[in-house]
TrEMBL record:
Belongs to the mitochondrion-specific ribosomal protein mL37 family. Keywords: Mitochondrion, Ribonucleoprotein, Ribosomal protein, Transit peptide. GO terms for cellular component: mitochondrion; ribonucleoprotein complex; ribosome. InterPro entries: mtLSU_mL37, Ribosomal_mL37/mL65. This is Large ribosomal subunit protein mL37. One of its GO terms (molecular function) is structural constituent of ribosome. It holds the Pfam family PDCD9. It comes from Homalodisca liturata. It is found in: Mitochondrion.
Amino acid sequence: FPLQPDSKFSQVQTVIVHHNLTEVKNLFDAPVQESQLLGRSLMKAYTMAVAQARYNYGPQVKELPQPLVVQCVQTDGQNFHFSVLQLHSTEVDCHRRNVYWSLPPLPLYEDCSYVQ
């Protein structure tokens, strides 16, 4: 977990993920689909939220005393994907549901070039 026990910053608020187009690939060189990018954001946010829950409440925590909220921003420098995960439980099969909100990827710009 990236936080040290004696750190004055003990809560993860936002996870920033760089999507490197030359490194993140599919098997057999198929292009990465938008649904895969959205799934990647979900997995990164969930992983960080579970790590934060274990950091806060111990490694055996199941249902959290209060929800943890982690934001995720994934970008390739041109497109940005924003999402939020609210973690209620680290158990997969639990009556308390974890909640995930997501926006579609947003392009920051269409073209980056010099125009006279």
